[in-house]
Design goal:
The protein is of the alpha/beta class. The chain has 2 domains: about 40-145, no CATH class; about 165-420, 3-Layer(aba) Sandwich (Aminopeptidase). The chain has helices at about 50-60, 85-110, 205-225, 265-280, 310-330, 390-400, 400-420; strands at about 175-180, 230, 285-290, 300-305, 345, 380-390. A 6-stranded mixed β-sheet has the order 2-1-3-6-4-5, with helices on both faces. Strand 4, helix 5 (about 310-330) and strand 5 form a beta-alpha-beta unit. The longest helix is centred in the first third of the chain and has 29 residues, at about 85-110. The protein starts with about 45 loop residues before the first helix and ends with a helix.
Length: about 425
């Protein structure tokens, strides 16, 4: 739910015009999407016409050679003075020899090996081999293919792997993680594709939906490794469903905005999320977001933390682990940014937050207390922007199974690694 300097307000809730970053962001010109993989080869049976043509070609190459001309000595006598009885016997013997050769040619194969006549043997698919009767690279046939080992399918890049959790967590208890999928509900969809994007208008392609799907996946993985997980929202809805005055400032969303520009309703929503994490006594806060900007060329991933907290070093460490994980896992599916274009791990004061949280100079979810307005989170944490949904290359990854798996794996590796370094006390 936290707002960033490059994040537009939702116009449906009466937000102002799109804010601008105060510091320049490098753009990536002409991103090249990874080439699509070729479809796997599929077996195909020959048609009747193709089978007849193949059978005719084989018969033509295996037909018996015609016998040589009959020598004059055994030719029939027709008034030349030679004995007709003698030549008739020789002709009969020659006919028997020819018949025997014919039988051997067509039937001998069944006695001494595979028959070369009749229907062809069943076709066997071989990847990359194309038959003379079909030009499609996805169709292949051979009579004696060389066996090819098929690698076991994998859903995750090999590096880095998830560290195995200890048999018993140090400190005598399992770590507690509070996962906050940003945004949610009918009026706060978060970032969405630009109108000119190929993904514009597709159902479910918005920040609120995508981060919730990632959070569900992450929760299941962490629980299987003995981590206790608390989620600020488990469905496509806001946390402060009743619209109550959660932070105790005497104001709600019905009262509009403060003099500093902060929406009272947004502040109550953020405070409700902080309250979930604090009530669970979480050891770590993971705020999951997807980025967006008004120029489609901007892309990449980044992480933010608050330096003005007593545990800021732990927050920075965790943000760095997630950032490195995203870099490694996305590279594993072909997404690599030039080093000069990487966005990095930054303190939230560098956001120049000129949105609804400008008066705090921090991301409310991570920042320090503000008397009478914010009761802060009590654990280290980072806010992660996993790619730009306003960039079509990034959006293609965000909406793919491989992309979601890479992003969730980055979170998972970072969390397990963090708790091995900083076990709960």
């Amino acid at each position: 739910m936290a707002e960033r300097g490059d994040r537009a307000r939702d116009t449906r809730s009466g937000g102002a015009a799109l804010p601008r970053r105060s510091r320049a962001r490098k753009e990536i010109a002409g991103p090249v999407a990874p080439p699509p993989s070729l479809p796997a080869a599929q077996p195909r049976r020959l048609t009747d016409e193709e089978r007849r043509a193949l059978r005719d070609r084989r018969r033509a190459t295996t037909a018996p050679v015609p016998p040589p001309p009959v020598p004059a000595a055994v030719a029939p006598v027709d008034g030349t003075g030679q004995s007709r009885g003698t030549s008739r016997g020789l002709v009969t013997l020659g006919a028997l020899l020819i018949a025997g050769l014919t039988v051997l040619a067509f039937g001998g194969g069944r006695l001494f090996g595979e028959a070369t006549g009749g229907d062809p043997p069943p076709e066997r698919p071989v990847v990359g081999q194309i038959t003379a009767t079909d030009s499609s690279p996805a169709t292949a046939m051979a009579t004696s293919p060389t066996p090819v080992a098929t690698p076991e399918p994998t859903s995750r890049p090999a590096v880095p792997t998830v560290p195995p959790p200890p048999a018993t967590w140090s400190g005598g208890r399992a770590p507690i993680v509070c996962i906050d999928p940003g945004h949610g509900g009918p009026t706060d969809r978060g970032r969405q594709p630009l109108l000119a994007s190929a993904y514009s208008g597709l159902p479910g392609v918005d920040e609120a939906t995508l981060v919730l799907e990632q959070a569900w996946d992450l929760e299941a993985r962490l629980v299987s490794q003995g981590v206790t997980v608390v989620m600020t929202r488990r469905a496509d809805e806001v946390v402060n469903r009743s619209g109550a005055d959660v932070n105790g400032d005497g104001k709600t969303g019905r009262d509009g905005r403060s003099r500093g520009g902060t929406s009272y309703g947004v502040l109550d929503e953020l405070q409700a999320r902080i309250a979930v994490c604090n009530a669970a006594q979480a050891d770590l806060l993971v705020s999951m977001h997807i980025n967006g900007f008004d120029r489609p060329s901007v892309q990449g991933y980044e992480a933010w933390y608050t330096k003005e907290r007593p545990f800021w070093e732990n927050s920075y460490r965790f943000g760095t682990l997630v950032y490195r994980g995203l870099k490694a896992q996305l590279a594993g599916i072909g997404y690599v940014l030039p080093e000069a274009d990487e966005r990095g791990v930054q303190p939230d004061t560098k956001l120049t937050v000129d949105t609804e949280q400008a008066e705090f100079n921090h991301l409310v979810l991570l920042g320090p207390a503000a008397e009478g307005k914010i009761d802060p989170s009590r654990m280290p944490g980072a806010l992660v922007e996993a790619l730009f949904i306003t960039n079509d290359e990034d959006a293609a990854i965000l909406t793919s199974g491989a992309g979601r798996d890479a992003i969730v794996t980055a979170y998972e590796v970072a969390i397990i690694t963090y708790f091995k370094e900083h076990p709960p006390r």
